[in-house]
Amino acid sequence: MRLTPARATHAPCFWLLLAAVLGDASRAGEGLTPGPSYDCSKSRGSIEALVCADTALGTLDRTLAVVYAAARRKAVNEHPPVLKAEQRGWIKGRNDCWKAGDKRQCVTESYRRRIAELQARYRLVPISASATFVCDGDPQSEILVNFFQTDPPSLIAERGDSVSLMFQQPAASGARFEGRNESLWEHQGEATVVWGHGAPDMHCKALPDTAPASLTGSAWALVAIHSMDDAQGTTSIDHPERYTVSFAADGRASFRLDCNRGTASWKSAPAEGASAGALEFGPLATTRAMCPPGSHAQRLLRDLPNVRSYVLRDGRLSFSLLADGGLYEWQPADR
Predict the structure, then answer these.
(1) Number of domains in the chain
(2) Predicted TM-score (pTM) of this structure
């Protein structure tokens, strides 16, 4: 396992991070107009006025606008839609910096964290490293962690149906990350993890490295859909053979969606030293037969454009949807 990218003590250059979104490092700085993204003549409140009066804060605001626009493009099929609501909540939180002793520092950190959050959650920057930890000696208690070289460095950890975004914090040794109610402190392949408010420490060890696994030539049948909405929970698939995907070497994926068939382009970027990485499908072309009541075909049609990463573990394949939208679990298909 290689966690070196996540333990880097120097954050990536601000403009390089922006270039990852804009797609052209040589022109990243040129693409920003001075000042914030909003009309300063219509600014409301002391914090918006502060951003207008501060060149660095104005640049952060305009950078966030670029990153947010890229996230919106990825979230176009997001269900339920959360991005806009979260952004409104973030703006309210930023404006609450008027209560802080150091208002400028509070606003700066608010922008940096929001930019990093969007870059990680919507995969606007690549996964830099991955690891799987087994906690308290229980093979059923695993935590999958993907690291991102954002500024500040971040990770997304998945434990069962729960997902946590964490940011790196100063540490005397190892790498320490904290989220809303979770934390992970890793050092030399071992980690102390707290998962949930007031939860006890878990003592975890990283699984040994495995060679990167390629999806090319593999075929899978759907066995379960795990929703992040507690009201929906997990949906078990009674007939996995009716929902399949196969990955061809020519970059085409073939689907069976109950009574329909479909194809789409696919591309993946395995993280170094792990059977996991980024995964995306292109536009899906399908037949249009009306499937019987109880079919899951329409749900797959809705969610497949939102697939952003995959994990191969214990002989099964999982797709993760953007913005913690859920997990699709597959088993090897009979050829």
Answers:
(1) 3
(2) 0.64
